[in-house]
Structures are given as C-alpha cells and as structure tokens.
Design goal:
Keywords: DNA-binding, Membrane, Transmembrane, Transmembrane helix. InterPro entries: OmpR/PhoB-type_DNA-bd (IPR001867), Sig_transdc_resp-reg_C-effctor (IPR016032), WH-like_DNA-bd_sf (IPR036388). This is OmpR/PhoB-type domain-containing protein. GO terms for molecular function: DNA binding. It comes from Shimwellia blattae (strain ATCC 29907 / DSM 4481 / JCM 1650 / NBRC 105725 / CDC 9005-74) (Escherichia blattae). This protein has about 270 residues and is of the alpha+beta class. The protein folds into two domains: about 1-110, Arc Repressor Mutant, subunit A (Orthogonal Bundle), CATH 1.10.10; about 180-270, no CATH class. Helices cover about 35% and strands about 25% of the residues. The chain has helices at about 30-45, 50-60, 65-80, 140-175, 195-200, 205-215, and strands at about 1-5, 10, 15-20, 30, 50, 90-95, 95-100, 105-110, 180-185, 190-195, 225-230, 240-250, 255-270. It has a five-stranded antiparallel sheet, with no helix packed on it. Strands 9-10-11-12-13 form a five-stranded mixed sheet. A hairpin with a 2-residue loop joins β12 (about 240-250) and β13. α1 packs across α2 (about 50-60). It starts with a strand and ends with a strand. Residues about 115-120 and about 130-135 have low confidence and may be disordered.
Length: about 270
C-alpha cells in the first residue's frame, strides 16, 4: 500500500521507503518499527490511546513495549517528516491520546500493475533412460541406512554444541540493569542533566564546555522549558575521537509525556 502525503512525499508501507513525487528512486527509508508505527496511524486516523498503539505495534508483534520506545519512534517520525516540510505528522490530542495530523492531505495510491509474465520456454525433451550396468556394484540397504544415521548424528551433535555455546554466551554477557542517576547542572536558561558517572570522570566546567560545542554545532538554542541530557566518551577529553549522545527534550506542564530529539555522534572530535 502506498500513500501520497501532502503531495510532497510518497510512503510505501511494504518496505518503508519515502520517495519524492517526481523521482523513481527512494529518497530515504524508515526502520521496520517506525514504518509499522506510521502505517498503524494511516489505517487508524481517529484518536487512539497510547496503550492501543503499544499493543498493536509492539505487543502483537512479539516486541517489548514501553512508553519510552513509543516516545523515541514518535520523535523519529516527526524529525524525518520535518525534513520534507511536513510538521507534526502525529500529534498529541490530550493526555495519553494520539492522532494522525488531521491537517495533512493523505491520498491512497493504486499499487503498480504486475509485470507481464513471459511465456514459458518449451520443455526440453526427456533424456533417454540409461540401463544400469549389471556389473556395477550396488550399495546394500543396511549400509545406506547407517550412512544416513551417521549424518543425522553429526547434525544433532553440531546443533547441541551451538546451543551450549549460545547459553554460555548469554550467561557471560548478562548484565544487571541499574538505573542512571542524573544531576542538574546550572547552565544558561535551559535545564542540563548529567549522569553521576559522567561527572565523576570530568569536571563540570569541561562538561559544560563540550556540551556547548555540540549544541552550537547542531544549532540548538537553550530556552526556558527545555531539558538536555548530555553524555560523551572519555576520549572526548583528548584529541581522539569520542562517542556523543545529546537528548533535546521539550517540557510541558500540561503534558506528562516529553518528546525528545536524540542526536548521536560515533566519531566526534572537539574543536
């Protein structure tokens, strides 16, 4: 199923691609979960609860649902469509209720007709049967059975070893989940949150300085009512390349759900 959204973008629900109307090649592609979330709202244009969305998109597909996952993919969809000048594709109607933006123009496009099937080539004449040489030795049935049994034993042993290795890997890689404790850092007019582990590894001045560098590069201002969560790897303190995470969240007093734009740098070097 394909949809023309605001005459600006064509969304294909079969593979999650986004294509400009005057192009034959996809311009971008949504992830599987983001595409499933958008497709749900395109099929349910009325007001729906967050619980219904979590059940239909996550629980019914065997995925672990949570409000944080839903917030993350809502933010991802809004950011993606904002790139195509389509704002607020999914809006919050009231507390816990969501809806596809009713100001959008949605046109369902007919699927492309199937390609014509080429006529089948004439079947080749069957090869003549060749009589087996009477002098050729034949494998006894018992030997053939033992050979097949040996293959099954080998396959079963390989599967057992792979299962044991998987169990050992799971036990070794298991980690006890611990909550992250955040500390408020005074900075300008916005609210800056830092993890305690982050502050133990770097001074507050260096933390704020690196936060400003990342925020200015992203051209994000700090205004009242906005919250930032900032984290970076140890190598950011040196001249090496480090990993960076920045969450830019809007806080609303009348809405307990805060939507965040998340930014990641996997090889960021300080200026």
């Amino acid at each position: 199923m394909r949809y023309n959204i605001n005459a600006r973008l064509i969304y294909d629900a079969t593979d999650g691609t986004l294509t400009l109307p005057d192009s034959d090649e996809p311009d971008s592609q949504l992830s599987i979960t983001a595409s499933a979330l958008l497709y749900f709202f395109l099929r349910h244009t009325g007001v729906v609860s967050r619980d219904e969305v979590l059940k239909k998109v996550w629980d019914d597909n065997g995925l672990t649902s949570s409000n944080s996952n839903l917030n993350q993919y809502l933010s991802m969809l809004r950011k993606t469509f904002r790139h195509y000048d389509i704002d607020n594709i999914i809006v919050t109607v009231s507390r816990g209720m969501l809806q596809l933006n009713q100001d959008l123009s949605i046109e369902i496009l007919a699927d492309a007709p199937p390609a014509p099937v080429a006529p089948a080539a004439p079947a080749a004449p069957p090869e003549p049967l060749v009589a087996q040489d009477a002098a050729e030795p034949r494998t006894p049935p018992a030997a053939r059975w033992h050979s097949r049994a040996r293959c099954w034993y080998l396959a079963g042993g390989c599967l057992l070893i792979m299962a044991l290795l998987l169990v050992v890997f799971t036990l070794v890689s298991a980690r006890v989940a611990r909550p992250i404790s955040l500390t408020h850092i005074s900075h300008s007019q916005c609210e800056l949150q830092a993890s305690d582990e982050m502050l133990r590894s770097v001074s507050a001045n260096a933390y704020v300085r690196n936060f400003d560098q990342v925020r200015q590069r992203l051209r994000i201002g700090g205004r009242p009512g906005e919250r930032f969560v900032f984290f970076y790897g140890d190598r950011l303190e040196t001249n090496g390349l480090g990993r960076v995470f920045l969450a830019h969240c809007a806080m609303h007093e009348d809405n307990p759900f805060s939507y965040c734009d998340n930014y990641f740098y996997y090889a960021w070097k300080p200026q």
